Amino acid sequence: MNEFELIAQWTRSLPGNASVIVGAGDDCAVLDSGQPGRYLLLKTDAVVQGIHFSATAEPEQIGHKALGRCLSDIAAMAGRPIAALITMALPSHFDAAFLQRIYAGMSRLAERHGVAIAGGETTSNPERLLISVCLLGDVAADKCILRSGAKGGDALFVTGELGGSLAGRHLAFEPRLAEARWLAGHFTIHAMIDLSDGLAGDLRHLLRRSNVGAEVLARAIPISRAARLRARAGSSARTPLLAALSDGEDFELLFTVAGRDAVPLLDAWKKQFPKTRLSCIGKITSAPGLKVRDKTGAHSLEAHGYVHFS
């Protein structure tokens, strides 16, 4: 049983109540805020030493990543982050100054996005450092974007560049909060997800929730320079394209819009965010399945994203 099969088993019969608009299965839980026209967003995520960061990572970067992962999920719903609670599970021999620098990295990112760090919890974890973040946000009810709204004929877009994130970008990415809110405010975005487990994996999550398929153009996928350099140097067995599809830890936005909006969106984006790449990488199909089109034709995509266990 892999990670996602286990999650599906756990979430099949979770208790709910009238406050839950959207439960497990999207980037955030969506809750009734009690205020007309607004939803609350709730997200939790954890980073673990040896899995999400190495023992040699700078502590400020660890803090940045711990909070940034949750901020990226709020962005995927076009939301606004409000406040976070931080749980630190510490190994038996911890360095208080090191932990203070982790909080400094978290605090800098929080201040940039107007997020309060409102408290948390400290406990022990004998083997390694673990940081869990619970983040509260909100969003206008009519601007909240889910994974489940993609439609046949939609254009498929991705921000930034993909692959090779472990060369350093996974510790220094900037959550696409401003970009997501701009998209929701200027266009009708049908579905959106943030890319944490790799394009091949996260696109499948979106397609499954929307009950549609997709065809991706291999030549249109924005491959990062880091992925190309790693392949050229022989430090990765993956081709640059495979790295872009399956490396994960990109924390970019993948979203769909009606085909007629594709060109106007690209033109407006270039004016609003001239330093951030936006690529149309394919289209949504009414028939299920995920295909990649290259010079030889369209083929079923065999690549998958990152899975914690299988």
Topology order in helix (H) and strand (E) letters: HEEEHEHEEEHEHEHHEHEEE
Please tell me the CATH architecture of the largest domain by its name: Alpha-Beta Complex
Major sheet size, sense and barrel closure: 7 strands, mixed
Please compute the radius of gyration using only Cα atoms.
19 Å
Identify the overall geometry: globular
What's the CATH topology name of the largest domain? Answer: Phosphoribosyl-aminoimidazole Synthetase, Chain A, domain 2
What helical percentage do the residues reach?
25-40%
The counted number of beta strands is 13
Return the average pLDDT rounded to an integer: 94
In total, the number of domains comes to 2
Classified by CATH, the class of the largest domain is Alpha Beta
- Low-confidence runs: none
Structural class: alpha+beta
Structure description:
The chain is α+β, with helices and mostly antiparallel strands. It folds into two domains: 3-140, 2-Layer Sandwich (60s Ribosomal Protein L30, Chain: A); 155-300, Phosphoribosyl-aminoimidazole Synthetase, Chain A, domain 2. The chain has helices spanning 3-11, 59-76, 96-112, 177-186, 199-210, 225-233, 240-246, 262-272, and strands at residues 20-22, 29-32, 38-48, 80-90, 116-124, 130-140, 155-159, 189-194, 213-217, 253-257, 278-285, 289-294, 297-300. It has a seven-stranded mixed beta sheet, with helices on both faces. A six-stranded mixed beta sheet has the order 1-2-3-6-4-5. The radius of gyration is 19 Å and the shape is globular.
Give a brief rundown of this model.
The protein is of the alpha+beta class. Helix content is 30%, strand content 28%.
